[in-house]
């Protein structure tokens, strides 16, 4: 059975070239992707300001997303994490028996193998209501150190790799944003001055990427 799952995941990934090309047409280079200056918590707050419904936080850790949701009556928050030393609503994706308007996967998928990451996204489609969205953050591997700084990182997704994978699995309306926590003016000025160099080297100063995909209605 495991070999069958691995083969199915591999086949799906071998077919991703066409989907990745479509994403690349929308975002032809890392520097064509919209940029926001924000910490992770600020980013999540901005997303949740317009969110309404049930939210699942996969790999929830310390449940900081739940703390943000506690101030908003229109959000029903649930967490899932394999770490059973902390309280979570679920400790396995297989135990979840309800549907959600949104799913967050924050800095999680890069810690999984490609096959396991694909299976995770397939499970997300099953758990989403029609029209529901998934919000995924990953390290920006166009940044010199964002991916390599953590030895537990396993799979390095370029922005169009993850966008293409989502598209291939059936998500629509793929949106991608670069995220930089360096919000001070001096960093913005430096980034602007060095932009030609970054383009020439095909590198980026933003350390994070947000990818949003929607389940068909």
Properties at a glance:
217 residues, Rossmann fold, 7 strands, 8 helices, alpha/beta, single chain
Structure commentary:
The chain has 217 residues and is an alpha/beta fold. It has a single domain, classed as 3-Layer(aba) Sandwich (Rossmann fold). 37% of the residues lie in helices and 23% in strands. It contains eight helices and seven strands. It has helices at residues 2-14, 16-26, 40-48, 64-69, 114-127, 159-169, 185-193, 195-201, and strands spanning 35-37, 53-58, 75-80, 100-106, 128-139, 172-180, 208-214. It has a seven-stranded mixed beta sheet with strand order 1-6-7-5-4-2-3. Helix 1 crosses helix 5 (114-127) and helix 2 (16-26) crosses helix 6. The model is unreliable at 1-9 (pLDDT under 50).
The number of distinct β-strands equals 7
Q: Segments where pLDDT lies below 50 for 5+ residues?
A: 1-9
Question: Which structural category do the helix and sheet elements fall into?
Answer: alpha/beta
Helix content: 25-40%
How much is the radius of gyration in Å?
A: 17 Å
Query: What summary fits the major beta sheet?
Result: 7 strands, mixed
Mean pLDDT: 89
Instruction: Quickly count the helices.
Output: 8
CATH class bucket: Alpha Beta
């Amino acid at each position: 059975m495991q070999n069958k799952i691995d083969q199915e995941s591999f086949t799906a990934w071998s077919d991703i070239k066409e989907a990745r090309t479509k994403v690349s047409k929308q975002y032809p280079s890392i520097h064509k992707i919209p940029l926001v200056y924000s910490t992770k918590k600020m980013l999540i707050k901005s997303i949740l300001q317009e969110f309404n419904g049930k939210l699942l936080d996969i790999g929830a850790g310390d449940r900081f997303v739940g703390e943000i949701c506690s101030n908003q009556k229109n959000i029903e928050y649930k967490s899932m994490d394999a770490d059973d030393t902390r309280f979570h609503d679920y400790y396995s994706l297989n135990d979840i028996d309800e549907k959600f308007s949104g799913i967050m996967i924050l800095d999680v998928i890069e810690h999984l193998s490609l096959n396991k990451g694909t299976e995770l996204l397939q499970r997300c489609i099953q758990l989403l209501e029609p029209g529901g969205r998934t919000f995924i953050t990953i390290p920006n591997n166009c940044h010199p150190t964002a991916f390599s700084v953590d030895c537990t990182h396993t799979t390095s997704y370029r922005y169009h790799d993850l966008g293409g994978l989502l598209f291939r699995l059936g998500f629509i309306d793929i949106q991608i944003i670069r995220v930089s926590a360096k919000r001070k003016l001096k960093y913005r000025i430096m980034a602007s001055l060095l932009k030609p160099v970054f383009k020439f080297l095909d590198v980026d100063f933003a350390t994070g990427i947000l990818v949003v995909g929607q389940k068909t209605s």
